[in-house]
Amino acid sequence: MAFSALLQSEWTKIRTVASTSWTLALAFLVTVGFGAGFCALVNATFDDMSEVEQATFDPTLLSFTGMGFGQLAMIVFGVMVVSSEYSSGMIRTSLAAVPGRGGFLAGKFAVATALALVVGLVTSFVSFFLGQAILGDRSIGIGEDNVLRAVVGAGVYMALLALFSMGVATMLRSSVASISILIPFFLIVSNLLSGFEATRKYGQYLPDKAGSKIMQVVPEAMGSPETPYGPWGGLGIMLLWVAASAIGGYLVLKKRDA
Prior knowledge:
Elements: H1 3-15, H2 18-44, H3 51-55, H4 59-63, H5 67-88, H6 90-97, H7 101-135, H8 147-172, H9 175-195, H10 197-203, H11 207-211, H12 231-255
């Protein structure tokens, strides 16, 4: 099967499964909704913030505070794209039609990541402009230094998170197992490791903590701890995690029977 036909096939699978469309819609609504809510809250209580938080106030990053919740929906999207084929038994038909497992996985990852990137960029731009409208006099323009990088980076971050989840789901081949590991990992483990001084030096290298650095415009924004890498360095660390996950998924798919 030609690669273009493979991409068309994967696109048909994704758009005809209701759960994948709902998770992307949820990622958008949760990120934008919570981001707007946090912007309204901070704008109303700005004078009560500490001097450090006021001095490092980052209106761009504040627009993306809903990302902490919205990314969970994006993780579920990445898992469902892969695991739905295993749960339905469709994977055997797919691999019979496309014997080259590397090409099959590349097509699936490419289509789903491109879709996640489009949704991620729409989400990041809507979150930014809505958040800045709420912040009023404390807002920042898209043309200011590094702001456009942060907004585009937020969309790229969501797409990479989906790709990372696809790699994990390919290795585990189960939606329950994948979600049971990924959601607690990003929601609890990552925050715990990064929340304590003794473990922060390890937690800061996890994919979400490193990758989300790309959304910051102000260094050590909102009183956050200093890191040994900048926005691009953080994105590079996340790319390494994503590459490891995708390669692991390919090796498992290549060795195991469907």
